[in-house]
Amino acid sequence: MARKGLLAIAAFASMAIAAVNPQLASVHTIYILPMAGGMDQFLASRLTARGVVQVVADPKHADAVLTDHIGESFETRMNDLYAPPTEKSKDAASQAGFTAPPPPIGTFGRGRGSFFLVDRKTRSVVWSVYERPHGTRPDDLNHTATKIAGDLEGDLVKAGKAKK
């Protein structure tokens, strides 16, 4: 009896591992936010080289945003990137003759190994992975970025977006 229970649990666990968010299939372009240690540069390189998704330099052309943190500072950054300006702020900016630059993004305290792909419009996390770099050397970061790109590619295949 215990053996049947273990087999059922193992079967259920394997189905959960194989499942991916169906929203992932709608992601074709991503914008990568700055990350600790320059990980964003390595990820852009690896994702582009694999042809997993198109990495864009203009956040307004992205379906999703790749980040190494979520929370209040992420929400603020998303508002800076995507919230339409209010009429009051547009009038004040045009009268002054300029628009204020977005606040600087610090990287202290980030880069703990979690990466999130967030839908630009719904702001829901459509994919995530934990892959902590083994060090801060470029080879370590490149190795981690290669693993992340491979994981994303595999999940895109499962979601039906990409062909292996």
Report on the structure:
This protein is of the alpha/beta class and about 160 residues long. The chain has one domain: Double Stranded RNA Binding Domain, CATH 3.30.160. Helices cover about 45% and strands about 15% of the residues. The protein has a five-stranded mixed beta sheet with strand order 2-1-3-4-5, with helices on one face. β4 and β5 form a beta hairpin. About 10% of the residues have low confidence.
CATH topology: Double Stranded RNA Binding Domain
Structural class call reads alpha/beta
Query: What's the average pLDDT?
Result: 81
Q: Estimate nothing, just give the exact number of structural domains.
A: 1
Main sheet: strands, sense, barrel = 5 strands, mixed
Counted by DSSP, the helix tally is 5
Uncertain stretches of 5 or more adjacent residues: 10-16, 100-110
CATH C-level category: Alpha Beta
Distance between the termini: 40 Å
Rg computed from alpha carbons, rounded to a whole number of angstroms: 19 Å
Strand order of the largest sheet: 2-1-3-4-5
Shape, please? Answer: globular
Order of helices and strands: HEHEEHHEEH
Fraction of residues in H or I helices: 40-55%
The number of strands is 5
Report strand %.
5-15%
Provide the CATH architecture.
2-Layer Sandwich
Summary?
This protein is 44% helix and 13% strand.
Please write out the topology.
Layout (H helix, E strand, L loop, with lengths): L1 H17 L10 E4 L6 H12 L3 E2 L8 E4 L4 H11 L4 H10 L17 E6 L5 E6 L7 H22 L5
Parallel strand pairs: 1-2, 1-3
Antiparallel strand pairs: 3-4, 4-5
